[in-house]
Amino acid sequence: MTSTAAPLAPPTTVDVEVGEPELLLKLTGPSGAHLRSLGEEFRVTLGQRGTTLRIHGAAEDVASMERTLVQLLDVLGDRNLSSLELARAARTLRTHPQVNLRRLFDDVVVAAQGRRAIAPKGLTQQLYLQAIRDNDVVFGVGPAGTGKTYLAMAMAVRALQEKRVKRIILTRPAVEAGEKLGFLPGDLAEKINPYLRPLYDALHDMMDAEKVAGLMERGTIEVAPLAFMRGRTLNASFVVLDEAQNTTSEQMKMFLTRLGFDSKAVITGDITQVDLPHSTRSGLRDAEHLLEGIEGIGFVRFNDNDVVRHPLVQRIVRAYDERDARREAARDERRRERGALMDDERERGGGRYRDERRDDDRESLPPRPAAAEPGDAGS
Questions:
Q1: What is the dihedral of CA 167, 268, 132, 239, to 10 degrees?
Q2: Of 113, 156, 96, 135, nearest in space to 306 by CA
Q3: DSSP 324-351
Q4: What does R_g of the chain's alpha carbons equal in angstroms?
Q5: How many Å apart are CA 75 and CA 302, to the nearest integer?
Q6: For residue range 139-152, what is the model confidence (pLDDT) as tens digits?
Q7: Is this structure's pTM higher than 0.70?
C-alpha cells in the first residue's frame, strides 16, 4: 500500500484597491520600499499597478497580508508612520492577528505639544500599559530596548498631569555595570548623577527642560538612588524602580514596603543583566517567585520580539538569549551527570558500609561462654 502526500494548494491572487494617491504613497514608501519589506514579512509577492496592490502567494499568507493592508490603510489615513513603525506594525499583526491596530496607535499616553506622541508599539506594550492602569504594583521584566522604563515614566507623567498623584519618584540602584568607577569627583549629587542620567533623558523627552527643572526644584519630581528610599512612606506618588535586577532581596523588600496610600509602583528590569556579585541573589528574580499571583500585583514579560530600538538590537538580544539557553542546558546536563555519579557512589558505598557494619557487629558481641564439661555442675 502506498501513500501519497496531499497536493499543495495552488497559489492565489488578491487585488486591493487604494483610491487616494497620497494614502497609497504613505503605504508603499519611496520606490515601493515598504511593499518589498511587507512582502518578505508575509512570504508573499506584493506588487503595484496604478492604484491597485496585487498580492500573490499561498492562500493563508495572502489572506493575512490583505487583512494587514486594510488595517494599515486605516491607520495611515490620519497619521504618518516611519518605515520602522510600519514594519513593526505589520509584524505585530502577523504574529497577533487579533490586534486592532487603530486601537493600539490611539492608546496615547503622553502627547505634549511639539513632541511625538508616546503610545504602545506592540501588543506586549499595550498589555503593559493596561496592567499599570489595573494594578498598584507592576513588574515589567524583559530585555533592554523593549520600552519598559520609558512607558512607565510616561504613565507617571500622565498621572501627574491628571492630578491623580502629587509627585513622581524615579529610582534605581547605584550598581556599576561590570567596571569599577573608583571614587567619582564632586558632591553626592554629582557622584550619583551618572547612574540616573537615563531617567533624566527620558523625562526630557516628555516634558520641556524648564518645566522638569521647576518640578524637580519643588520636589514634585524626584530622581534618587534606591538607598535614599529607606525609612520613607510614599503617599500619592507614582514610583518607578529601574534596573531592578541589581537590587538584593532585602532592597526589593525595602522598596516595596515604602508604598503608601494612593500610590503606584512600577518595577522594571532584565534578569539576564545582573551586575551583582555572583553569590548575591537578584531581588527581581526573588520577587518573581514570591509575588506572582498576589491580587493587585501584575507581571508583564517582554521578549526579543518586543525590542523597539534599532533592528539590530533585536538580533543581538536573540543571539545572547540563545547562547544563554545553550549554556543553561549544558549546566543542567552536567548537574544530571553529577547526580547520577553521586547516586552510583552512594549505592556502592552503602553496600560496603553495610558489610563493614556486619563485621563490626560481630566483633562487638560478647564471647559465647564455653560449653560446660560433664561433672562440672556439681563441683
A1: -10
A2: 96
A3: HHHHHHHHHHHHHHHHHHHHHHHHHHHH
A4: 32
A5: 25
A6: 999 998 899 999 99
A7: yes
